[in-house]
Amino acid sequence: MRAIVNAKIVTDKEVLEGYNLLFGKKIIKVTKELPIWAEVIDAKGLYLSAGFIDIHIHGSAGFDVMDASAEALNGIAKSLLQTGTTSFLATTMTMSKEAIEKALTVVQNHKHSDGAKVLGVHLEGPFINEKKHGAQNPEFVQKPNFELIEPYMDVVKMITLAPEVEGGEVFIKHLKEHYPHVILSVGHSNASYEVTKKSFSWGVFHSTHLFNAMNPLHHREPGIVGAVLENEQVSCEIIADLIHVHPLFFNILYKLKKEQLLLVTDAMRAGCMHCGEYDLGGQKVVVTEGEARLKDGTLAGSVLKLNEALKNFYVHSDISLPELIATVTTLPAKKLGLKVGALKEDFPADFVLFDDGFEIYSTFVNGEGVYRKA
User: Fold this and answer.
1) Contact criterion met (CB below 8 Å) for 294 and 285
2) Which domains can be identified in the chain, with CATH numbers?
3) Could you confirm whether 266 is annotated as catalytic?
4) In the chain, what percentage of residues exceed pLDDT 90?
5) Would the pTM of this model clear 0.85, i.e. be above it?
6) How far apart are CA 268 and CA 124, in angstroms?
7) Distance between CA atoms of residues 277 and 96, nearest Å
8) Whole-number Å distance between alpha carbons of 220 and 223
């Protein structure tokens, strides 16, 4: 048994001081007790929380999920430890049927790594609206096709789609009936306010990178954004890099969505790397001054780190620290229906130590210290 002492422990409700975290491979308990036989780790006043979960990330450290290799998946997983991320959904792109199947097979065969845990797949496309393809390659957009993904439904945990396209309603209703655990998310879509509301009754209950790759909020046509903000049961994610969404909306979203707001990175392979030329879904991407863009200027994911997203949102909103940390721990875990993201008894001992500026000092996965700031 080991114990973290002298930490400010962030739960989903409060920040505890004077408590210790007892753990092995799993969390034992948060308590004021300190058994004499425990191996003590002094946090020296740092914050301690459950490890972060990123449900929308394409790549990092020069690797991309669509590289479709164990090396790439492990490279991403290991690099994310420095950001406090201990679990993630490997996110695919709108590419050829063969490329998508290859990437899904790699995740399906993935057993373990010495980095963050791969919780499954976020299928971003190819069932999207060509008019709102964003940085997705419109050449490979296709109508919803369950046969394409059926062999991989054991690892598919989330699907971003456009409910208004031909076959969308039938596809969504089928998934809701047979795979209710899968997060169905409206994104890369041009659905009207009315159609978006209908899609919620079909089975959609999340929105991918709200505001981006969808019709804008308009006072006469509320669109997807209006429908999402109106419905208290529908969650949404944002990329809080101060580029994809103006920080003015951080506080608005916090006040309107509360426990239905998640932070993600949507990072591509340039994450945790230097500026330069990269690619995303087979398209050239130029990264300069923290922005990743296609040749035509379209934003192409991000190079955001999840701990940076937390800092940005905290600075530009009135959210409390426990509520903030929940956006990347308990809330995504609840959406996924998985036993992760909390410092609770018998949960995996996945946690991080960070300072006031959200700089990551240590990351633990299954009770093992896998990252320590140099």
Assistant:
1) yes
2) 2-48+345-372 (2.30.40.10), 51-336 (3.20.20.140)
3) yes
4) 94
5) yes
6) 13
7) 23
8) 9
